[in-house]
Amino acid sequence: MKKTQIIQISIFCLIILISYFTYNYLNYENETQISQSKKKEENQKKILKDYEMEDSNISNRILDLSYKSIDEGGNIYEIDSVSGAVDGKEKNLLLLKEVDAKIKILNKGTVLINSKNAKYNKLTLNTHFYEDVSLIYEDHNIKSDDLFLKYTDKEVVISNNVSYKHKNNNLMADVINMDLISKISKIYMTEKGDKVKAVIKN
Length: 202
Description:
alpha+beta
């Protein structure tokens, strides 16, 4: 066999080998991309399914929500949350998680409220705070399971496992009604035979 023929055969074999390895490499890359794409799609479907399982009535989940409103009297209501969603049944109602709120009453000070969850009406600004609720105003500190803010009336109704602390004084009651303008509060039990528990320290 001539030397030129050997060289030609060697070059031909080399071309075949290069083509073979190139094909395998490209095919592997393509399979890898397809596999990664499928995994990403499966993860997205899983996340979506988890949200749907959490609450089938919730849509349009949003992160880092913040709302601020100033009324005609110069009072300011601010509410922030880590995440929220529009209620599937009522479009003006937002379901919020990890909530912080400020109510600045003109010439009356600031009321701070925080809770794990809240239902916030975008039209009326009325808000139901629930689960690990805390209200702080100056040296008044109230904890409960539920707090209903009727913003138009500037009225707060605090209920369920209510604990009120003011300086060294502690109260346990069923309900506290607060007027944010007059600062007049009513503390009472729902059952007539029950009494408000108080610990007063001078």
